[in-house]
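Fill-in record for ATPase family associated with various cellular activities (AAA).
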Amino acid sequence: MNLTAGTISPEESADSNSSSDLQSLRDYLRGVLLGKTEQIDLVIACLLSRGHLLLDDLPGTGKTTLAKAIAEGIHGRLARVQCTPDLMPADITGFSLFNQKTREFEFRPGPVFADVLLADELNRTTPRTQSALLEAMAERQVTIDGKPHPLSATFFVIATQNPIDSHGAYPLPEAQLDRFAIKLRIGYPDREAQRRILQREVRDRTDINDDAKPSSPLSLTDLQLLQQRAQSVSVHRRVADYLIDLVEASRDDDAVELGVSPRGMMSWQAVSQAWAMLKGRDFVTPTDVAEVAHPVLSVRLLTRGETVDNVIDRIMNSVPAPEYK
């Protein structure tokens, strides 16, 4: 610690506040989604990297609960879209409506103008409607009638899909998948977590106050500061070269039809920076890159006749990690 006349420097004070805010968010989300510590950290890393999240899991595992908790945890506005085959692009982005009194067109913003957008079962809506999110997710703006409309600086998409029920579903196109930072499965909670869930449900029904229930810890401004701090996490050239080697290995693998794109590579680095920050470091190690490989690659690798997890394991084993001191 740098000491000057017994005081803490402004930089150290800011870092301390950021670390406290980050831990508060972690504690809050862990208190909402019980027994899922690693999954919560990956969700926060996705949020800090300014990416978007695809939840690919069975019904009833807490996907919607998690989305609501994130919005509450950052004091952000949540918008929810139930994706169905008859959903139109304007139902997501908004539309212009002619006002008979003013004789002018007025823009009516859609649910995309929120801080957190929950797109329930995104693969249930048509590719045309799915494409309404492409510009929003990549550029944080939508263009309507030739006019760009900026979205929230913290705009965060959480999309869900059910991996076992494909009837009436439309596979997400590669361009859509590549705009997500990670794909995550929450999975069923363990036995102790299930017991705590039942106990909490009883308390909620009987209106008993739960003093342990966490409160919303952050503001949107706090979140932006944390995102800026994550972007400033150092990436050594050897670590960057390691990441590039892995990306090129994904393109050269015989079982991979579509490897990691440059956008995917940048997303992988950003998530690695956020992951290092969650570990309390201001630099990325090869271990950080490897630990987030599965959620980052599983959303964007298109394979031929082999499971994505097996292909990712082979890619990671094919490239030696550099020594990092």
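KEY FINDING: Residues 1-14, 208-214 have pLDDT under 50 and may be disordered.
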